Amino acid sequence: MADKEPNFQMTFAFIDRQIDNNVIQQRLLDGYINGTAICKSAGKEMKHYLSNQTTKEYLFELSSEVGIPTSALIQIVRGGIPELQGTWVHPYVATHLAQWCGKFHTIPRDN
């Protein structure tokens, strides 16, 4: 998982998505979604998702399929603006995460 500089997020525009009554931000440029916010909307913790063996296997398979290193599928942002901190995930990972959280039907699936 890649840790990003605090000002990294400032270079992106965001789309606000709604899951139930919670705002989930998605970066416009690369489509990465705030996984921490997805977990929070379901009362779950990102660290539990990341430590799950099924998640590790999924990330390995996804990495092989899309040609993106596993470490780049999940980006952890620390420091800077609190609202922009958290774990940002590739859109495919966001779908898997939403399934794990029981929120699959609410994740945006734009083309």
UniProtKB/TrEMBL annotation:
This is KilA-N domain-containing protein. It comes from Bacteroides faecium. Signal peptide: none annotated. Pfam families: KilA-N. Residues 11-111 form the KilA-N domain. Transmembrane segments: none annotated. GO terms for molecular function: DNA binding. It comes from the Bacteria.
